[in-house]
Write a structure and sequence with these properties.
The protein is of the alpha+beta class and 136 residues long. It contains three helices and eight strands. Helix 2 packs parallel to helix 3.
């Protein structure tokens, strides 16, 4: 099992990453430099199709268009700007990962692979990516 770790001090991110779970991770010592430690267990059980209602809500609150597609044994969701219709953010489900693509006129301008972790954290990451690319 893997965990996603965030180590903060004075509201400043010091380190983050994906690490194998061991009891030593759970008892990670607090130091003067690391005042908090957040642990997120990797959850490969969610898939994008399970969250269609949540994605519709996100598209409504951000005033963007939402599209859901299922083909080739994978699910994808796309958010599209209403002001700049050529701007899209696409999320494709690949089991334990989600491919995130920023597109302009269907051309990929930025692409990342996100490891699946906490569902709520994922939804906030979706909001952030859409806000930064579709609203600016």
């Amino acid at each position: 099992m893997f965990v996603w770790l965030y180590i903060e001090a004075s509201n400043r991110l010091l380190a983050y990453g994906l690490f194998p779970w061991t009891t030593s991770v759970a008892s990670y010592p607090r130091t003067a430099f690391a005042s908090s430690l957040s642990i997120f267990f990797i959850n490969e059980k969610f898939n994008l199709a399970d969250g269609v209602v949540k994605f519709v809500g996100i598209s409504s609150e951000m005033d963007v268009t939402f599209m859901f597609n299922t083909c080739d044994n994978s699910n994808s969701i796309t958010f599209q700007s209403k002001q700049k219709k050529e701007y899209q953010v696409e999320f494709v489900d690949f089991g334990s990962q989600v491919k995130v693509s920023n597109k302009i006129n269907s051309n990929v301008v930025k692409e990342n692979l996100w490891e699946k972790a906490d569902w709520d954290q994922f939804l906030w990451a979706v909001r952030g990516r859409c806000a930064s690319f579709l609203k600016n």
